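Quick illustration for those who missed Monday's session on complexes.
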Amino acid sequence: GKGGYDHYMLKEIREQPTALRQCLRGRIDELDGTVALEDIADLDHSGPVQFVACGTSYHAALFGAERLRAAGVSAQAFLASEYTRERVPVDSDTLVVGVTQSGETADTLRALRAADGAGATTLAVTNTVASSAARECDHALYIRAGPEIGVAATKTFASQQLALALLAFELGGEATRAELEAIRDVPGHVQTVLETTTATEIAEAYVDADAYFFVGRGYHYPVALEGALKMKEITYKHAEGFAAGELKHGPLALVSENTPVFAVVTGDDEAARKTIGNVKEVEARDAPVVAITDGVSDVARYADHVLEIPAVDDLGASVLANVQLQLVAYRVANQLGRSIDKPRHLAKSVTVE
Ligand code: M6R
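Prediction with 5-amino-5-deoxy-1-O-phosphono-D-mannitol bound:
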């Protein structure tokens, strides 16, 4: 059941610390400074990596590709429905990773089969043991999030993020102790976010907005896309995510005082400073700004509201920022009285192409 919650979605958002601990269990040896993924112990790969996925899982794939590139691995993410063997450079050196919660998404299965047909090694990153993807791929890595009932993917996205972060150690360079500790600490920080969030206030302030925009850079770019997807699918309102640097190339024409812009800005590096520059451009056009931030930079000075997260590295911060955006979408949808667990026109598992 819903365990006392009004919706499975809220239950599953709140389950994230537990889900993430399950995902990490037995996979990190901090003393040795190593990651051990038993599921894929016999995967030995050193070539390029391609991700194929749909929807929320595609956003996780974008995150995974970014993380792999940071580890020195050539990696790209493709929408499974756009992936065809004829047009992508795939051969026996390539590892093709299907990211799929259900393991039954038709577009993703088709892309994996095409990759297999071209001689690539295939890996399913999935929540579902013995799913079609797990059975058909050469390898399977389980994200161990537990069953997800709400149509909107929440805990499975966070678990995909951490599983892919672990995969990067397996395929890329060795982990440092600091990196491993940072990953180990993510579940606890998610708990802090759940206990301290002011998402309800933000939702009340902007429930009548015309549209919602989300921006971020680096690891926060897929989070901006995911924030918008969550918002549109459960509130039925217009929401879009952009790479922060793209605003001035078109989307800026959309912003007004009725379109809040959610900006994910953490740390105080060049990426953060550039996104703050984008925030100033938005503010100058009178759009309300909600900063999702750790308070390390001075982005709050340019924001109307702040959703605070603990100060951690940018990889972990993207998990935490996403939890805040899940909660905002949930609270807006709840105030609008939407059918949160079963949004109109959508299915949990999309088994047609
Ligand atoms: O089961 P999958 O991860 O392959 O599903 C792919 C998408 O249909 C899915 O992520 C969808 O976008 C989410 N349920 C939206 O919240």
